[in-house]
Predict the 3D structure of the following.
Amino acid sequence: MKQAEHPCPSPATRYTQSQPPALVLAGPTCSGKSALALRLAQQLGGVVINADSMQVYKDLRVLTARPDEAEEQRVPHRLYGVLPAAHKGSVAWWREQALAAMQQAWHAGQLPILCGGTGMYMRALTDGLAQIPQSPPAVQQAARALVAEEGAPAVHERLMEVDPQTAARLKPVDSQRVARAWEVWQATGHGLDWWLAQPGLPPAPARFVAVRLDPSRVELRARIQARFTAMLEQGGVEEVRALLQQNLDPDLPAMRAHGVPELAAMLRGEITQAEAATRAVAATGRYTKRQATWFAHHPLTAEGLTCMVNACFSDFEQFSERKYDEIISFILKGIDAPNIGS
């Protein structure tokens, strides 16, 4: 196992003692966050709170690699499989639910462990959240339809005329973000960046300490391939077939989860299973690269409060006891909470 390039530092003093502790466990898809969270929760008396935008859907246990029922029974898990696929989750919804779960954990004398790879979810707690008004469904649908009809680059040109500040930071081919920016401008008369600059919801009242998994690309690619093969064996195709039977809007988040579009195309007879697997693995690989880039440019804690680990975990027992002790020591110093887990 590769050693961390930057060993866990001694955490800096940032939070007042009146703020309860919370651990952020972040990293790209397939890096083994769930296995690490389970082990840490067992030792520290923790509650694992899902911070993955796809693992909130109850219809997608296999394809999102949600913890299985046995794992969920070993330690408390929150916000896993709580939404139907027909529901469109949001950062604001998740933040509200996560705050409630954190409060429950603190009240019970437990450590909240926020585990996932959706950086925007975590940042909504660590940095706060802009309060962008909810767009009417008709406006959302119209924005998506416009992008589908004219193409994202054409809508991006329109956006440049009315909201150049937001358009300047968006890639013209990024259909999802272009549609979102157009929708916000249409619904509110203000650009997305204007809303982001306004006072919003404050950070959660917690002492955040983070452990971030940052494995090598080679290691991650091999794990993505192996995981998707296992998903096919464990019922991934049946999971997608059940989704298709619900006749859901293909633009819903659950319908865009990794593996769903590819296996749906296979079930429609458009591609073979081998082609579906190749496409799904490639798409997941591209996503993990974006995740790693996002976390590298958006620190989740103040300097000195994030422990970097350059490795994956399929089973935490593969990890050296020395490195494990180092991480545990880092966490305990950072949260400065001797009563947690006692």
